[in-house]
Write a structure and sequence with these properties.
With about 240 residues, the protein is mainly alpha-helical. The protein contains 6 helices and 3 strands, in the order ααβββαααα. α1 packs across α2. It starts with 5 loop residues before the first helix and ends with a helix.
Length: about 240
């Protein structure tokens, strides 16, 4: 497994997200959503989605960070990174979404799989933007998973941080006032996070009456936020 110190990993997180941030933190979502955003978000989700993206970008300035969290590279035998019985597959990373308790900041844990999985082996400079040429980002026949990068996963994980989501103005989830502001991972739509994000949007748009009270909204689903950003980035640059 490729090993990184916490300091170098934090620098890498910033670099992995920077190109995404240049695009989606400036997108005008005050009106109707356009292009790739509409695969994952409703128009009414746009304001809070942009606020989340902007708050991720705001933490790129370590001298004036609006929130704090810790990052740890997990060991190979860390049980928290292994697939739970009957649950989704082995994790790339795990983030504690509970509200911060006093001075004890919440942790993002980078699992060993993150350093070996195909979807996190690439960054936005791993391929050329060279039209329909073999090996280009833009070659025909690509699927969403072909565009996933380390930055995509790290963006997904950062939205799980209560401190970030609270600073972005996200409402709490659940019936109690002490519940987390952070995004969650929607259940009930299968184990593929991106497909589940699209299915969640379809449920809210076309089958809203079938949803339970308090059902997770698209802007509260981590992959909806990450996938909208990744999709829009490649729509702009392809």
């Amino acid at each position: 497994m490729q090993q990184r110190s916490v300091t170098s990993l934090l620098i890498w997180i910033s670099q992995a997200q920077r190109k995404h941030l240049d695009v989606y933190s400036k997108v005008d979502l005050t009106g109707s959503l356009v292009s790739s955003f509409t695969h994952y978000l409703r128009s009414e989700d746009g304001g809070l989605a942009k606020s989340l993206w902007s708050m991720v970008a705001a933490n790129n300035d370590p001298t004036n960070a609006p929130y704090t969290f810790s990052v740890r590279c997990a060991k190979d035998d860390d049980t928290g990174c292994k697939a739970p019985k009957g649950g989704r597959g082995q994790s790339l990373a795990i983030t504690d979404s509970q509200p911060q308790d006093g001075e004890n900041v919440r942790e993002m844990k980078i699992c060993p799989l993150f350093f070996t999985a195909d979807e996190t082996s690439k960054n936005l400079d791993s391929r050329k933007y060279d039209g329909d040429k073999r090996g280009s980002w833009c070659q025909k026949g690509q699927h969403f998973k072909d565009f996933e990068t380390a930055g995509h996963t790290l963006l997904h994980e950062m939205t799980h941080l209560d401190a970030l989501a609270k600073a972005a103005g996200m409402p709490t989830r659940g019936e109690n006032g002490d519940q987390s502001h952070a995004t969650d991972d929607v259940d009930g739509f299968g184990d593929d996070y991106t497909a589940a994000a699209r299915a969640l949007l379809d449920a809210w748009v076309n089958h809203r009456d079938d949803l339970a009270d308090g059902a997770l909204k698209p802007f509260q689903n981590a992959e909806s936020i990450a996938a909208a950003a990744t999709g829009e980035y490649f729509t702009i640059y392809s």
